[in-house]
Amino acid sequence: MSANIDDLLSKVLDKDADKDEDLSEVLDEEFLSSPNPPDIKFANVARKKLIEARIAPLRIEDMYLHGECRQLVDIIPGRLSVTYRTPSGAETLYIRRKLGEARTEINMYVNTYHSILELCSYIHSLNGEVFPPLVDKGVVSEEAFKKRQDKLSALPQLVLEDIWVNQRWFLARVRAAATADNLKGG
């Protein structure tokens, strides 16, 4: 399994890399301005290209027609797959309110807490297990949110970091697709 990933990675590097630059040592632009960037082993350009080569294109029209866009991402094939989704405004407001409750905590706690809260709203399923819906009749369900938060908080921190990095890449793909779609005029 590892040899296959190494082979794919070397093909990505051989195809797209400058001969003088190893893209597995280059932090992806999504994280360059971050005050606390993720580990480069998770968030490097080569890894992003490798992961994005395995995913189906976004159906950005679903966001406009059905209220959310989803994308299955095999982060580590056979071991870690996540279906990401675009959260609603109600979910975003709920997370910001919850984040406000932690304003007296230290910065590292708030950063980790914020990441977990975001993942609660961005994840539709983890390794094939569908999470319960968050919104019921336009209101975020405290119980459903707590179930998601408990499930994610039980994961090892390194797994959470990897899921979060891929969530940021998903969001960047959604924004790029939405902008491209809007520029086309539909």
* Distance from first to last alpha carbon: 41 Å
Give the C-level CATH assignment of the largest domain. Answer: Alpha Beta
Low-pLDDT residue intervals, each spanning 5 or more residues: none
Instruction: State the share of residues found in helices, binned by percent.
Output: 40-55%
Mean pLDDT over all positions: 88
In CATH, the topology of the largest domain is named: rbstp2171
**Strand ordering within the main sheet:** 1-2-3-4
Total number of β-strand segments? 6
Q: Main beta sheet: strand number and arrangement?
A: 4 strands, antiparallel
Any idea what the radius of gyration is? 17 Å
Number of helices: 7
Strand-pairing-aware structural class: alpha+beta
- Spell the H/E element sequence: HHHEEHHEEEEHH
- The total tally of domains equals 2
Identify the overall geometry. Answer: globular
CATH architecture of the largest domain: 2-Layer Sandwich
Fraction in beta strands: 5-15%
Task: Report what the structure shows.
It is a single chain. The radius of gyration is 17 Å and the shape is globular. The protein has 2 domains: 1-53, no CATH class; 59-184, rbstp2171. With 186 residues, it is an alpha+beta fold. The relative contact order is 0.12. It has a 4-stranded antiparallel β-sheet with strand order 1-2-3-4. A two-stranded antiparallel sheet has the order 5-6. The longest helix has 28 residues, at 157-184. The protein is 52% helix and 12% strand. The model has no long low-confidence stretch (mean pLDDT 88).
